[in-house]
Amino acid sequence: MNRHLLPVVTLFVTLLLARQLYPYVSGAEPTVVDGYHVERVAGGLGGPTCLVWANTSHLLICDRDNGQILSLNVFTDERRTLLDGLDRPHGLAFDGESAYVSEAGRLSVFTVDTSGVFVNGTLLVEGIPTGNHQTNAVDLLPNGTLLWHSGSTCNICDEEDERNAALLWVNATTGEHGVLASGVRNSFDGVWVGGHGYFFTDNGRDWEGDHPDEELNFLIDGAAYGWPDDDPEHPVPEGTEPPIGRWTPHTSMNGLDVRPPHSPLPGLEPSEGFTLYATVYGSWNTLLPQGHEILRIDVRPSADLNTYTTDITRFAWDAGTPLPLTFHPDGTLYYATFGNGGSLFTITAV
User: Fold this and answer.
1) Which residue would you say has higher pLDDT here, 64 or 231?
2) What distances in angstroms separate CA 255 from CA 162, 190, 216, 259, one per listed residue?
3) Buried-most residue among 9, 34, 300, 336 (CB within 10 A)?
């Protein structure tokens, strides 16, 4: 290499490394809009990928890095391991009696014993390929069916297994399953909103400049959502469903929950629609840091409830690497950052 170019290349590589590490090691305090306060309430949680309430004091946490499901008393910081030996757990559905656990390529159900520990595991689904992405959140729908998010194995490709890049339905008893929605490249999370249906995040392909935006989608049974046929000239291919909300490309919009009407956090009145909150993890696929945010998403339905419009704004920023989030029954928002030991934060009114 030309000795005159070496310092330039070295500086460029150093800047790229600094850009990658910044969200994990910057030490920046999260910032939130006026009238609200962010507080760190727990650390040392490994690699948190899900947050699910067992009751009003105990939060169940998927720890991907250590292959565990943890129980954390958010008021006393008492911790307990409910299940370990897992392969990259990313999702948990919990009804008090049964726990449905999403790992890399497999979904299992466990009985919850009288002490709260998960026992007597039964495999429901296995063998879903993993690659660039894996199987993520699992939710229990009002009709008792499980909805499972399954990521793509690649950035852009034709999947060999139709269960990749899809939302899957799963019979919670037998494990029978199939594709509910296709063309969903990497959907991390979703939430059921009563009176409306299921809303989910999806993250698009990399390496194509400002294409595509990260998405918020409304689930339509049997619909396709565009990937891998979307491109800059055809962001919504013919015959596919467009997103109802868009955010900065390559920033990774992930965790999602619906704001309870009694929450002290800002949102729409029920007569106007409803408000979702989402995490934006941030991306390595940008030159300068982007993302690392908590979003407020105001959703307004049409009169016939067939279409939705959204207004998306930043609610908190400089938030490190936020991934899962959930509202406490009292309306307080909890979110966890992935990496740097794993921390849990709350956002409350001042």
Assistant:
1) 64
2) 24, 7, 11, 13
3) 336
Domain harbouring 223, CATH code: 2.120.10.30
Q: State the pTM of this model.
A: 0.92
Looking at the domain assignment, is residue 204 inside a domain?
yes
Long-range contact pairs involving 229-236 (C-beta distance under 8 Å, separation at least 24) = 229/183, 230/204, 230/205, 232/208, 235/211
Q: Is the pLDDT of residue 19 over 60?
A: no
Largest distance between two CA atoms of the chain? 69
Structure tokens at 167: 């939302």
Judge whether 1 lies within some domain.
no
Q: Is the dihedral of CA 233, 239, 243, 249 positive or negative?
A: negative
Upstream peptide bond of 289 is cis (omega within 30 degrees of 0): no
Alpha-carbon distance of 68 to 88, in angstroms, equals 8
What residues form DSSP beta bridges with 345? 40, 335
Q: Edge-to-edge, what's the strand order for the sheet holding 91-94?
A: 91-94, 98-103, 106-112, 118-125
Q: Over the stretch 188-214, which tens digit does the pLDDT of each residue have? A: 999 999 999 999 999 999 988 888 999
Amino acid 286: pLDDT: 60
Distance CA 349, CA 223 (A): 39
Supply angle C-alpha 34, 36, 42, rounded to 5.
140
Q: What is the rounded average pLDDT of the residues 154-175? A: 97
Report the C-alpha dihedral over residues 206, 296, 187, 262, rounded to 10 degrees: 170
Distances from the Cα of 19 to the Cα of 31, 251, 283, 314, angstroms? 20, 14, 10, 21
Asked whether residue 80 is assigned to any structural domain, the reply reads: yes
Give me the residue label for tokens 């998306």: 312
Residue 305 inside a domain? The answer is: yes
Q: Give the C-alpha separation, 267 to 256, whole Å.
A: 15
Residue 299 contacts residue 274 (beta carbons within 8 Å): yes
C-alpha gyration radius of the chain:
20
pLDDT tens for residues 28-60? 589 999 999 999 999 999 999 999 999 999 999
